[in-house]
Design goal:
8% strand, 78 residues, single chain, 4 helices
Length: 78
């Protein structure tokens, strides 16, 4: 679904930031934990477009924009 757009971003990241690889997909256990916690804390489901994106690319930072990955929340909760 996002493969074409992610390829364009990868070109920019490689060219301007020296990044060689895009993040891979979120791990299934991380997705389950994120979805469960979002439902508990927010009493809502996360948007389908966001979860679809995470299943292809577990977060992204490029040109001042950030899309948080499934693990980003948990890393800051210790």
């Amino acid at each position: 679904m996002y493969a074409g757009e992610l390829q364009k971003i990868a070109v920019v990241m490689r060219r301007f930031y020296g990044c060689e690889e895009m993040p891979g997909p979120a791990r299934p256990d991380s997705m389950e934990r994120l979805l469960r916690q979002a439902k508990k804390e927010l009493q809502k489901d996360l948007p389908q477009a966001y979860t679809d994106f995470l299943r292809e690319c577990n977060g992204l930072e490029c040109n001042g924009y950030s899309i948080y990955g499934a693990d980003d929340f948990w890393e800051n909760q210790t």
